Structure formats: C-alpha cells, structure tokens
C-alpha cells in the first residue's frame, strides 16, 4: 500500500474528504488536517483519484515522513529515500517546500536542503547529477512541513488539477474550477442532477461546465496532456490506461437541462468557447439575458451562481440595484427552487432579501467568500425588509424635502456643490454631499443603540433610493466611511482612479476627486467663510496656511488680492492648488510652498520678510504626521500658532482662524494677552445647507486692538 496526500484550497478539505470516500468507498479511513487529506491507497487508486477528484489541487505520493528539528534532519530524512529508484537521472526536477516551524523559518532554505540531499545521493550512487528546472520540471518533489513533521513527496499531478485545460478565456477574478465544483456540491445539486440547473450570471461559464462534467459523470481531468507521474519509475502505463478506459465507459448524458445566461454577449461568447473546449457544449444551453429577466420552462430546479461583487465601495453601490431587483425576480418566478450564491460581499447578498438556511465559507483564490443557500419556500417568498419599509420611506421623503428646500438657493447662488443631508434622521447616520453630477455618502459610526447590522441595512436602503431621487447614475455614487482622523491619514489615498471633475462655486471653478481621498478637495461648510474672507482680501497680500487644495486662495485671487501665498505639508495638495489656479486662469504674483506649516510660519516670524495683510488659518484638529516634528493639537497649540501668525501680520491686518473640533474652546484670555481681539463669527459663516448643524466648524476674526 502507498501513502498519499490530497491538497485542497482553504475551506474545501472537509468536502474533499467526502469526495474521496465517494470515489473510493465510504469505509476508507482518511486523516484530515487543514488543507489536506491523508490516506493509504493502491497505485490504481492513486491514478483514480488524480483522474476523478474535482476538488483537490494536487495528489502527492508520500515517500518518507519523519520528525525534523533542524536543517540536518531535513537532509537526513530526504536521504532515506532511494531517489534513483523514483526517477531517472536524465529527468529534471524541482522542489517545492511548504510550511515553517520554530527552527525552519524559511521555505527556500527547507527546499534547498531537500534539493542538496537528492543531488548528493544521485552523484554518490550514479556518478551523475540530475538537472534542476524550476520552470518546466519533469518531476516535482514536495516537502510539506507541519510543526515538526515533514512529508517528502512526489507530485503525481504535475500542474495544479484545477487547471482543467478548457478555460481558454476568462473575465476579471474568474471563479476557479475546483471552487465551482465545491459550490455545486455544497448547493446540493451535485446529489440531485436529475433537476435542472440555471446560472443566470454565468460569466466565463465555469459553473455550468463543471455542472455538465458532474452530470455526465465525466472525469474533470480526463483530457489532461501531462501528468506528474509520467517520469515516476513506478508508473504502470497499462494500469493507467485501464483506469482511463473504465472512466470513459462510465460517461453518460445529463438527465436534466443546464442553462447558462449572461447579459454580456462578449462574455457569453467566451463561455461558449470554454464549453466547446471542455467537450460539454452539447449539454449546456446558453442565452444572452439579463438575470433580472431570466426564466426557464422547468418549474423546479437549482439556481447556482457567482454574481459580480465589487471590492470597492463605488462598485458596491452600482451593484445594489441588481441584487435588489434579482431578489424580487426570484420571488416572482422561481417559487420552490433552491438558490446558491457565492459572494465576497455579504451586504450585497442581504440586498436580495432572502433568508439563507445554510452558509459555507470558502476561498476563491485569495478572496474570502461565503456561499449562501436559500430555499424559495413560503417563508422566503413573503417579501421582508430587516428594517421595515417605513423608515426607508421616511428617509426618502426627507431627502426629497431637503432637495426641494435648497433648489431656489442653489440656483440663485450658482452653487454646484452642497450638502443635502446630514444625519437628519438618527438611524440614517450619514452625510450626503452633491458635487455636480456626483454624490458622496459619508457614513458615520453607528450609534451604540443601533446594532451594526441594522445600520448597514439602512445605509443599503438609502443607497437604493439616492440615485433615483437625486437623478444620478449609481456609478457616480461614492460611499466613504467617516472616522476620526489622525496623523497623515487625511492625506492617504483610498483608491487610484485618478478621476477629477470640475464644480462651480460663486463663479470659481474647482477640481474635485470623488473617489480617491476621504475628502474630495473642497470643504463645503467653509463656502461662506471663503466668500467673507475673499471679499476683505481685495488689494491685500494674503497668506493661506494649511491651504489644502487652495479654494480660499482661488477666491482671494479672483477678488483682487495683490498676492496669495499658499502653504501646505502635502505635495499632492500644493499641486492640486496650482491646478485650481490654472483652471480659473489666475496669473500674477502668487506663491505655493510645500512645507510643514508650523515650521514655515515660525521661521517666517523670525525674518524681516514683508508681512501679510490677511491670513487664513484652518488647521487640522490633530496631527502626528511623520513629516512633522512632534504632534499638533489645535486645542493645546492654537495660542502659539496665532502668536506666530501675528508676527507675520501687518499692524492693520486681520486673521481668520477656523477649525472643526466640535469641543474646541478658544483661550480668550491668552489671545487677548497678545494685544488682539477675537470676534466669534462662526454663526455668520454657516452656509444655508449647514444651518441645521451649527457645530460643523468654529471661526474667529482676529485683529489687533
């Protein structure tokens, strides 16, 4: 008897054990460890497993097993195998090593010790050295280490068994073949192939093809050209041909229809080509069709699919209407069917509003997914909403009301960027900003009284209504999570779309980036503040400290400032500010400085350079950026900041000092000790769309007595 290992993807090992027992017999003893099954077999059974397994990536013949504590133990264990009896010296080989322990921490090192032991033995016993070929070896030797136990194996499969050879073309993030087979098994259909199967979003056709292979009892690896055992000296060619012949004799036609639909004609053509290559095209009925309109003549069967899922929030928003409508379609046209959907996004699955009776975790490559099984029984056919329809309609009504209230003001003021909703309803805890044709939804942390799952459900319900009410494409609705910012996190990218669009504010134009950063490039709550400051900046030399993308600088320049100096720590934002100046056709004596604003201001205060007539300061609440020495806390450090700013200010000049720390309190006594007066103008700077949120920011006008 021989000992072998079958290697499977994460989450499939239990299912692989059941498959092995089905292939070889239920009485077979199998030892299960994460990612692999171990059992004793005959050579004939080893061939049979290679041919018939739909779930394993590799079948390995174990040549030696033992305890290893260091590199010498690896070498000694490998030398215990008589390698010239396993493969010819003219066969090139490669070593794969998997696993580490306390002493052996590097897989390359472990593989090197196995390679040295094999080569040394060949040289000692034959006087010749076999070639090592990493790219296209004849023989693959595997070392699999788990804690202190090492298995030395020969790969009987060769390349991974999931590579069936039929998928000549595929889309993005295709479903792996063995995962598709696992989905069909977990769905229950693989044990009920007398019922029809429908994949309404078939993509490259993998689920339908694997289903046809199962239903026709066709071994998934029957037409494989190369095997790992071909250069194994114990290979029995006659026995192998007998195993293949029996497998061919057992092939039969499927008992029920297999349907594969997709909305994309090019994708469907790709699926047809793959089915043709697999030899299964005669058993699959392909059709160009929207999943939300899919229907078949059978009144009972299985729907098994791997619907699209977005890894970015913007894609998630675009897919919500599809899942919502698909769920309604299932309830209307597929009563009594069973449905199995594989997705990496459980929130999208919730949008179909079906109760799953079983869930399985499994990976598609490195992507962690969940397979949800549903029965379209009486309970699921009854429409339900986890949060109820009334709260969702209440949100929709509030959004419509807000839109109607702001319309005249927006038209009168020539404003394209505004806030239309700001947690108006306590259980719909997010802000909604409109930037031209784009809508940005900023999700706040859910209140403690509201379970996170319910908060996610309500956000989902809102996202289903926002595109319709605000008349914008779902692709232009972007969701962001608003959390407490620290350090340089406000400068970090969230995406890499590079997309910029232009919005207008009081005649000025600004670039915004809807997706790549938490803040899009234009702070809406400072719209009125910018106007007030710019109106007073005419014919003045202006400093905009912590300038961000230069919106205050642009307005000041357009209002006739003699010069504007813009300073920010981020090179990205300095370049963005320059682009905004160019967008507005602004020329003249304007300066852009990329520097630590605190250091720059302190250094400027020590010089005799010309002073400014007007200074705008809107610092972050807190920062511990690596670009700064020490940390910045606006409550702790604001007096020192204003003191340095006064040293750079003309005697009759003024400062606008603003910040967004909700609990901020100006140190009035310390400020007055500097010989200035600070007038709180926060209430005057609130725009129409922020009146309901008076604590959005603070603002003072500071000037010398």
Structure description:
The protein folds into 4 domains: 2-155, VC0802-like (2-Layer Sandwich); 177-217 and 252-381, Vaccinia Virus protein VP39 (Rossmann fold, 3-Layer(aba) Sandwich), CATH 3.40.50; 389-483, 2-Layer Sandwich (Transcription Regulator spoIIAA); 520-704, Rossmann fold (3-Layer(aba) Sandwich). Helix content is 33%, strand content 24%. The chain is built from 19 helices and 29 strands. The strands form 6 sheets. The protein has a 7-stranded mixed beta sheet. The chain has a 7-stranded mixed beta sheet with strand order 10-9-8-11-12-14-13. A hairpin with a 7-residue loop joins strand 15 and strand 16 (430-435).
Keywords:
705 residues, alpha/beta, VC0802-like, Rossmann fold, Transcription Regulator spoIIAA, seven-stranded mixed β-sheet, 19 helices, elongated, SAM-dependent_MTases_sf, 23S rRNA (guanine(2445)-N(2))-methyltransferase activity, cytoplasm
């Amino acid at each position: 008897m021989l000992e072998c290992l079958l290697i499977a993807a994460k989450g499939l090992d239990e299912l692989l054990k059941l498959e092995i027992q089905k292939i070889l017999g239920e009485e077979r003893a199998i030892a299960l460890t994460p990612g692999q099954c171990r059992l004793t077999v005959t050579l004939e059974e080893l061939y049979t497993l290679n041919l018939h397994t739909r779930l394993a990536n590799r079948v390995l013949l174990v040549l030696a097993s033992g305890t290893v504590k260091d590199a010498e133990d690896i070498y000694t264990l490998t030398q215990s195998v008589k390698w010239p009896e396993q493969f010819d010296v003219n066969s090139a080989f490669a070593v794969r090593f998997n696993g580490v322990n306390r002493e052996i921490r590097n897989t390359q090192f472990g593989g090197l010790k196995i390679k040295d032991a094999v080569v040394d033995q060949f040289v000692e016993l034959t006087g010749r050295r076999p070639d090592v070929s990493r790219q296209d070896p004849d023989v693959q030797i595997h070392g699999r280490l788990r804690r202190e136990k090492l298995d030395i194996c020969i790969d009987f499969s060769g390349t991974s068994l999931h590579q069936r050879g039929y998928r000549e073309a595929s889309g993005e993030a295709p479903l792996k073949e063995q995962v598709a087979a696992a989905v069909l098994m977990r769905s229950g259909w693989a044990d009920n192939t007398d019922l029809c199967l429908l994949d309404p979003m078939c993509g490259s056709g993998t689920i339908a093809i694997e289903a046809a292979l199962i239903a026709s009892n066709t071994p998934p690896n029957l037409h494989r050209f190369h095997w790992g055992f071909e250069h194994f000296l114990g290979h029995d060619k006659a026995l192998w041909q007998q195993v293949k012949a029996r497998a061919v004799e057992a092939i039969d036609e499927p008992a029920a229809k297999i349907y594969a639909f997709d909305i994309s004609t090019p994708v469907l053509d790709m699926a047809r080509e793959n089915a043709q290559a697999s030899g299964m095209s005669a058993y699959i009925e392909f059709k160009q069709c929207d999943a939300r309109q899919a229907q078949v003549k059978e009144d009972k069967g299985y729907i098994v699919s791997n619907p699209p899922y977005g890894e970015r929030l913007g894609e998630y928003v675009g897919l919500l209407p599809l899942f919502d409508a698909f769920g309604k379609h299932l309830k209307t046209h597929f009563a009594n069917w069973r449905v199995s959907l594989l997705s990496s996004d459980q929130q999208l699955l919730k949008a179909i509003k079906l109760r799953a009776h079983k869930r399985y975790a499994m990976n598609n490559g490195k992507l962690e997914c969940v397979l949800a099984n549903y029965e379209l029984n009486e309970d699921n056919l009854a429409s339900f909403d986890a949060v109820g329809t009334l709260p969702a309609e209440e949100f929709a009504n509030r959004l419509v009301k807000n839109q109607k209230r702001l319309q005249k003001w927006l038209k009168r003021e020539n404003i394209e960027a505004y806030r239309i909703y700001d947690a108006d309803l306590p259980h719909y805890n997010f802000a909604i900003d409109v930037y031209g044709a784009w809508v940005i939804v900023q999700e706040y942390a859910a209140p403690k009284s509201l379970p996170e799952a319910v908060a996610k459900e309500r956000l989902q319900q809102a996202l289903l209504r926002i595109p319709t009410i605000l008349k914008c494409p779902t692709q232009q609705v972007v969701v962001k999570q608003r959390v407490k910012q620290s350090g340089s996190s406000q400068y970090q990218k969230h995406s890499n779309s590079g997309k910029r669009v232009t919005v207008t504010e009081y005649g000025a134009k600004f670039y915004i980036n809807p997706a790549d950063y938490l803040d899009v490039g234009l702070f809406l709550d400072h719209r009125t503040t910018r106007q007030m400051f710019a109106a007073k900046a005419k014919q003045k030399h202006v400093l905009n400290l912590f300038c961000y993308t230069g919106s205050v600088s642009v307005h000041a320049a357009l209002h006739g400032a003699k010069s504007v100096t813009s300073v920010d720590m981020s090179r990205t934002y300095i370049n963005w500010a320059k682009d905004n100046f160019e967008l507005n056709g602004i020329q003249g004596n304007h300066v852009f400085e990329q520097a630590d604003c605190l250091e720059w201001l302190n250094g400027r205060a020590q010089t005799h350079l010309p002073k400014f007539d007007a200074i705008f300061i809107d610092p972050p609440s807190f920062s511990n950026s690596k670009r700064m020495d020490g940390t910045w806390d606006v409550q702790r450090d604001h007096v020192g900041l204003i003191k340095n700013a006064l040293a750079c200010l003309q005697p009759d000049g003024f400062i606008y000092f603003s910040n967004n720390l909700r609990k901020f309190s100006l140190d009035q006594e310390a400020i007055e000790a500097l010989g200035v007066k600070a007038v709180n103008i926060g209430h005057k700077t609130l725009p129409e769309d922020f009146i309901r949120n008076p604590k959005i920011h603070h603002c003072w006008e500071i000037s010398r007595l």
